[in-house]
Design goal:
The chain has 57 residues and is mostly helical. Helices cover 72% and strands 0% of the residues. The longest helix is centred in the middle third of the chain and has 20 residues.
C-alpha cells in the first residue's frame, strides 16, 4: 500500500502533520497511538489488556 512512498514524500507528510498538530501535541499523539496498537495486538492474540500495567507507567 505504501511501497511507492519515497523519503521526500514521507518528509512532506511529516511536515504537514507537524504543522497541523504542533510540536507539543505530537508526543501525546504518539503515546496514544502506541497504547492503542498494544491493546489491538493483545486482542488479536486473545489476551485481555492488562489495565494495571498501563496505570503504573
Amino acid at each position: 500500500m505504501f511501497t511507492n512512498l519515497g523519503w521526500g514524500e514521507l518528509l512532506v507528510i511529516l511536515a504537514i502533520v507537524l504543522l497541523l498538530f504542533g510540536a507539543k501535541k505530537l508526543p501525546d499523539l504518539a503515546q496514544g497511538l502506541g497504547k492503542s496498537l498494544k491493546i489491538f495486538k493483545q486482542s488479536l492474540k486473545g489476551d485481555s489488556p492488562d489495565e494495571d500495567k498501563d496505570k503504573k507507567s
